[in-house]
From TrEMBL:
One of its GO terms (cellular component) is cytosol. Residues 5-134 form the CMP/dCMP-type deaminase domain. This is Cytidine deaminase. InterPro entries: APOBEC/CMP_deaminase_Zn-bd, CMP_dCMP_dom, Cyt/Deoxycyt_deaminase, Cyt_deam_tetra, Cytidine_deaminase-like.
Length: 135
């Protein structure tokens, strides 16, 4: 059984997750949601820390939550992320690298802003030439 991903549903989950962001330093709230090929959904928000380098993005929170629940590379169908940016939010390099390892290269990433602008790109398009260990 393969789930048909409705971006609106995934974006709504990301929008709700954004409300949970812990961002006392940047005050920039981000939400993300991932759905697996068999329909499981996981959400994430950014989690900041006074030691700024420890801040974790919403995208990685969602993906790591899925991994903690047993998901593995090949399981993911789509990811959505939303922030209050002028254009659809663009994931940082660290999140692109994590997506590259955990998600298929053709997996769609839906990027949105609160105003309703939405863009879609594949993982491969977001990070061509990602780092991989041999093999
Ligand atoms: O795609 C993005 C971009 C930024 N952030 C977070 C990191 C930090 O907490 C705050 C400002 O960069 O937003 C995300 O969660 N996802
Ligand atoms: Zn990031």
């Amino acid at each position: 059984m393969t789930t048909v991903v409705v971006p609106d549903v995934l974006l709504d989950l990301a929008r709700q997750a954004r409300e949970m962001a812990y961002a006392p330093y940047s005050r920039f709230l981000v939400g993300a949601a991932v759905i697996t090929r068999d329909g499981r959904q996981f959400t994430g928000c950014n989690v900041e820390n006074a030691s700024y380098g420890l801040c974790n993005c919403a995208e990685r929170t969602a993906l790591f939550s899925a991994v903690a629940a047993g998901c593995r590379p090949g399981d993911f169908a789509a990811l959505a992320v939303i922030g209050d940016t002028p254009e659809p939010i663009s994931p940082c390099g660290a999140c692109r690298q994590v997506m590259s390892e955990l998600c298929g290269e053709d997996m769609p990433v839906w990027m949105a802003n609160l105003a309703g602008a939405v863009q879609q790109a594949t993982v491969q398009a977001l990070l061509p030439g990602s780092f991989r260990l041999a093999g």
